[in-house]
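Protocol check, entry for the methods section draft. Step 1: assemble the input record (protein sequence plus ligand SMILES). Step 2: submit for complex structure prediction. Step 3: store the structure tokens unaltered in the notebook. Ligand used here: flavin-adenine dinucleotide. Step 1 record:
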Amino acid sequence: MAFLNKEIRDGDNQDLTEERRTATFDTDKMAEVIYGSEKLARRRREISHAVSRIPELADSRPLPFLDRFEKVTEGTRKLSVLDRHLAELIDVNDNGEALHLYHEVMGMEGHPLALHEVMFVPALIGQASDEQYEKWLGRAKRREIIGCYAQTELGHGSNLRKLETTATYTPSTQEFILHTPTITALKWWPGALGKSSNYAVVVADLIIKDKSYGPHPFIVQLRDEKTHQPLPGITVGDIGPKMAFNGGDNGYLGFDNFRIPRENLLNRHSRVEADGTYVRPPHAKIGHSAMIRVRSHMATGQGWLLGHALTIAIRYSAVRIQGFLEDKSHEVKVLDYQTQQHRLFPAIARAYAFIFCGFETIRLYDQLILDMNSNGNTSGMADLHALTSGLKSVVTHFVGQGIEQARMACGGHGYSMASYISEIYGVAIGGCTYEGENMVMLLQLARYLVKSVELVKSGKANQLGPMVAYLAVADHKVNLATGPDSYVKMFQYISKRQSWKATEKFLKFMENGDSRDVAWNKTAVELTRASRLHTRLYIMETFIRRVESVTDIPVKSALTDLLNLHLNYELLDVASYALEDGFMSSNQMDFIKNQLYSSLEKIRPNAVSLVDSFQFSDMQLRSVLGRRDGHVYQNLFDWAKSSPLNKTDVLPSVTQYLKPMMEKAKL
Ligand SMILES: CCCCCCCCCCCCCC(=O)SCCNC(=O)CCNC(=O)[C@H](O)C(C)(C)COP(=O)(O)OP(=O)(O)OC[C@H]1O[C@@H](n2cnc3c(N)ncnc32)[C@H](O)[C@@H]1OP(=O)(O)O
Ligand SMILES: Cc1cc2nc3c(=O)[nH]c(=O)nc-3n(C[C@H](O)[C@H](O)[C@H](O)COP(=O)(O)OP(=O)(O)OC[C@H]3O[C@@H](n4cnc5c(N)ncnc54)[C@H](O)[C@@H]3O)c2cc1C
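Step 3, stored output:
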């Protein structure tokens, strides 16, 4: 008999196999929906299989047992092996295939090329002129040079207007002089800057004839191309161990009056003429495009990270037998507890929702770059900036929460590095900070929401973009029993009310004499709440759109159960806003709760298959607890035995310190 869950193999843990047999949909078909196409889903499996046949691509030891130096070395080793096999493993022009291959082989702890593909090359694509493409892009794509994106400084990351690194133009030599005037001006944090990169896109304050023109991107050579030694005038190094990403070399960088030619200002959009005349860009923030790109990709990437943690936690919950339900002679799978389901299933729904929503923002970003590069049209930038600012903040926060719940759902074994969940958590929550600290970015979206409410107040609702049109729509009582649209309407009401309340509060402070900035700060918490609600509404809408578009009936049905869970969970989570003014009744609250509990029961038989559908290989998961075969106890024992501490029965530290102490106590 053909099983719908394609993960079933002989010899797997029976409890897990039993779960897989209950699948109501084909996991390969679900993977097509998750990854957007049959081809990519299939290619992912083929690539994972091909990688498993090249022993040199495997981790030489489990990563948790490696120290930092070993992690960096191991990452670089695998990268060089990968380089030799690249063309045979993937279509090198296919980003989806490349992304999968890197996740599979390199894992998530960082490596020398981590920022090269993610920010350095995209910054060139978005900011370099045709001549600069000619000079740099080919070399970068062939990896003759390795680059990173050096913007953040020791003293400033969020407030770009106060970056201190200067790029002063000297007309006599037609050069920029890069300089780090203070310790706080040192570039600090850029990934792959410390030891790996020999080039960087450096963001520095452009100064011409003593006048500052604000942050601009420059391509800068940091190290000698032959010896890899830092060039004279450059100070560069690694910033030390971090919460995660310890296979990566986030770095510091300082310039001592370091000269670069005029043509190294990335000048697709703004330029400095030989005589020092500055030519403005078509949009003041166009230099931020590499950041918008990463923010646009983050929802998908973070959804996958949550998917990793949930695959581990759900599989483990299906083989962990503990406690009783009705029959006191047989213990049950912990996955049967309603609390366990409530801890994990809404997070599965979110992982799916974030991935779907992420694909939509990636499409919007690609369109923006096309418009900008083909006809200089930057009209979509403000909308996309607002959207991705909110999205990266909401998604990273919930992903962090979801991963931590997944860890706790694994009890004691979740706390072991064998589960790998703590590493996934460390990597994921980096996203709350990088690409714009979450609060700062929520406040960016809030600016857009406040402006939109002001438009409605001044009778210009017709100027609202489609994503904020609901801010002008009249309120109607909602019958939640009528399907997803009624949930959207209820959420729109809640989100609209919060945006209006926060805007009114802000305007009131100003009417009472506060300056705009002070009034803004006094309303900031309320404003961030408005941003979160708006973003959650957007995620909900994209989830509904995606499920509606699915054609495979069993897949659509399983996704509809997830969607219903999501709708009820989300609405319950924000219900206090609608209860405040009696818009929602307590009967509606009870209805939502009951719907939610019944969704948990519906999802239960498909839980394992929903996470199997992510089709993360064991190599990619790097989790002893979450392996496909489900033999957790044997796998854990083998893993513990391989701990370097177990190489000898008696440690030198025992002989040297502990034993003498114990011996002394005997006297
Ligand atoms: C493939 C990918 C995989 C995923 C990745 C995984 C690995 C990742 C590895 C890790 C990688 C980590 C890599 C890293 O971490 S790289 C470093 C990332 N750093 C940051 O993200 C810094 C955060 N700060 C900022 O972005 C800016 O300073 C903000 C945005 C806060 C203010 O900005 P600024 O101080 O310049 O602005 P202003 O106050 O003068 O004016 C505000 C006005 O400007 C508008 N505005 C602002 N920005 C934009 C914009 N972009 N498009 C359109 N408009 C924009 C804004 O709406 C407002 O308009 P209005 O309201 O006045 O009309
Ligand atoms: C893993 C990782 C990788 C990174 N990679 C790179 C890279 O490749 N290249 C690069 O250039 N940078 C990189 N960074 C740096 C990162 O982009 C910055 O750390 C980030 O933008 C936050 O800036 P900050 O550190 O200045 O935080 P701060 O702004 O100092 O944040 C501290 C607190 O101040 C609050 N705050 C600050 N401003 C405001 C405001 N206006 N309103 C309200 N609250 C405010 C924040 O909300 C936060 O609570 C990386 C960081 C990490 C953690």
